[in-house]
Write a structure and sequence with these properties.
7 helices, 6% strand, mainly alpha, 3-stranded antiparallel β-sheet, globular
Length: 170
Amino acid sequence: LLTGQRSAEVSQAPIDEFDLVDRVWIISGERTKNGKPHKIPLTDKVLEIVKEAMVLANVDAPDSKYLFPGWPGKNGNKRGLLPIGKTAPHHALKRVIEGTKLDRFSVHDFRKICATQMAELGVLMEIVSEILNHSVNTVTARHYAKPSYLPQMREALELWSDHLMKIVER
């Protein structure tokens, strides 16, 4: 929810995609929907969560290369050989919303909330699209202008993070 990234990109994230010094997460093009590497600035809160997840991953599965190491399961693999399943966030959400009126709510709805709230906070749609890793199909975007938008993305994600933390702390 804090980064607006797809649940599979989060659940399957290798630890080496996170650059804690430059405070960015670079999702490999092999793991993105559009096949292009995607660089996401890490806000203070996301950096804190990623560091905590790294510590926990190291305790639970010291040899794992994943931020969220998977359990052996029926295949008998060693803990952490694979990441948690792509559907793990969906199953977790289903358990949380069971018996509520949110039966049609999905993990993907968090991306919609993130995008909508950032736009309502005044973030330009171009920056929201860049954060979500959506392709812009104009001649200028495809062939000429190739900005990184990293500073604008960082500012937008910090604004979103602050807003979200105020909601959660209520």
